[in-house]
């Protein structure tokens, strides 16, 4: 993220907020004897100007990176956080965790203003949308921010770290094709998600190479969660000509597929093969353990933390979008497709 020349002063913040320098200093230094409305004006002015108090990043205080996530219980986010904290220990910096509210309830300037007021070194954003408006607030605050596998990437200057989702989707599909599957369903993420689109494109590429025409009725785009995937899989598995395999684009979705199959009396992998995506710690705990596209989530977290620290020191990454390699982990949830007579009576 390019940084404009010249560092804003406390005087400029005070003038922008319409308060005295003494009052601005009290807000910046977290004194409590300032009215809430005044505090908000000063914090907004500091965020707009990109003011950061001397020593906020280094010197008289420890560097602190904020980890922002919209789903605190997400295994995906927790794996990334593990990598962030391990890298933070090595770099001797602190990490704090907070939640970004969904649905536009929290204006983008709100959390950027809060991060500036808290003197954060930078932020790592996970499973939360960063819009153009949000990016503008980040840029104004001159705050180093790295987004993990962003849902949207409309702003080229936004720095992100992710994985090779196209390759992941293709590798998983090639595995199913090699087992003999031809009716393969995909539970993709939201259509606006660049990661989900890349995974589905990889699926289509593998099918095309094998001479298999994907059935559009077997490709569904839903949220990256258990319930949405369960409902989508239930509808697909009830079709007159259901799939023999399902590729889910997250582990949470794969768990939803397993639940839908169980409710219909299907046995995995005898009647239906299922492939997950992410390879979080839950993948090996399912029954049966999930064959998964492995995303190096801890490494993604490490790279994100180191990138934020480098940006704070004035070093931009060579690429604004960093991708780490995926791989396939084969477990017990995939097998050759059943013969036409296989499966519980009436299940299909």
Commentary on this structure:
It is a single chain. The chain has helices at 10-17, 21-28, 36-49, 75-91, 108-117, 132-141, 165-179, 194-210, 226-237, 251-263, 297-312; strands spanning 64-69, 94-99, 122-126, 145-148, 159-163, 184-188, 219-221, 245-248, 273-278, 291-294, 321-324, 327-329. By secondary structure, the protein is of the alpha/beta class. The strands form 2 sheets. Strands 2-1-3-4-5-11 form a 6-stranded parallel β-sheet, with helices on one face. Helix 10 links the parallel strand 8 and strand 9. Helix 1 packs across helix 2 (21-28), helix 3 (36-49) packs across helix 5 (108-117) and helix 3 (36-49) packs across helix 6. The protein is elongated and about 80 Å long. The termini are far apart. The model is unreliable at 1-5 and 342-348 (pLDDT under 50).
Strands, helices and their partners?
Blueprint: H1 10-17, H2 21-28, H3 36-49, E1 64-69, H4 75-91, E2 94-99, H5 108-117, E3 122-126, H6 132-141, E4 145-148, E5 159-163, H7 165-179, E6 184-188, H8 194-210, E7 219-221, H9 226-237, E8 245-248, H10 251-263, E9 273-278, E10 291-294, H11 297-312, E11 321-324, E12 327-329
Parallel strand pairs: 1-2, 1-3, 3-4, 4-5, 5-11, 6-7, 6-8, 8-9, 9-10
Antiparallel strand pairs: 10-12
């Amino acid at each position: 993220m390019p940084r404009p020349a010249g560092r804003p002063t406390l005087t400029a913040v005070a003038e922008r907020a319409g308060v005295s320098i003494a009052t601005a200093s009290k807000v910046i230094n977290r004194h409590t004897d300032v009215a809430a409305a005044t505090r908000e004006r000063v914090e907004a002015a500091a965020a707009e100007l990109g003011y950061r108090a001397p020593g906020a990043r280094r010197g008289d205080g420890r560097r602190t990176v904020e980890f922002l996530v919209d789903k605190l219980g997400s295994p995906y986010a927790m794996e990334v956080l593990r990598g962030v904290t391990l890298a933070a220990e090595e770099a001797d910096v602190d990490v704090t965790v907070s939640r970004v509210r969904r649905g536009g309830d929290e204006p983008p300037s709100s959390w950027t203003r809060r991060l500036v007021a808290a003197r954060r070194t930078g932020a790592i954003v996970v499973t939360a949308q960063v819009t153009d408006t949000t990016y503008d607030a980040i840029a104004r605050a001159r705050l180093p921010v790295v987004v993990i596998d962003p849902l949207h990437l409309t702003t080229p200057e936004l720095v992100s770290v992710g994985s090779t989702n196209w390759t992941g989707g293709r590798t998983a599909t090639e595995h199913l094709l090699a087992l003999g599957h031809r009716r393969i369903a995909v539970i993709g993420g939201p259509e606006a998600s660049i990661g989900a689109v890349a995974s589905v494109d990889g699926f289509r590429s593998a099918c095309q190479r094998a001479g298999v025409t994907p059935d559009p009725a077997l490709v569904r785009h839903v949220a990256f969660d258990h319930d949405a995937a369960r409902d989508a899989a239930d509808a697909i598995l009830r079709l007159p000509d259901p799939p023999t395999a399902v590729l889910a684009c997250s582990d949470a979705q794969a768990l939803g597929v397993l639940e839908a199959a169980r409710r219909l009396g299907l046995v995995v992998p005898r009647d239906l093969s299922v492939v997950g995506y992410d390879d979080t710690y839950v993948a090996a705990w399912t029954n049966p353990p999930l064959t998964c596209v492995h995303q190096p989530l801890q490494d993604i977290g490490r790279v994100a933390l180191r990138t934020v620290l480098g940006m704070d020191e004035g070093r931009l990454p060579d690429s604004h979008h960093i991708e780490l390699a995926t791989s396939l982990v084969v477990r017990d949830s995939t097998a050759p497709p059943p013969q036409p007579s296989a499966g519980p009576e009436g299940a299909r």
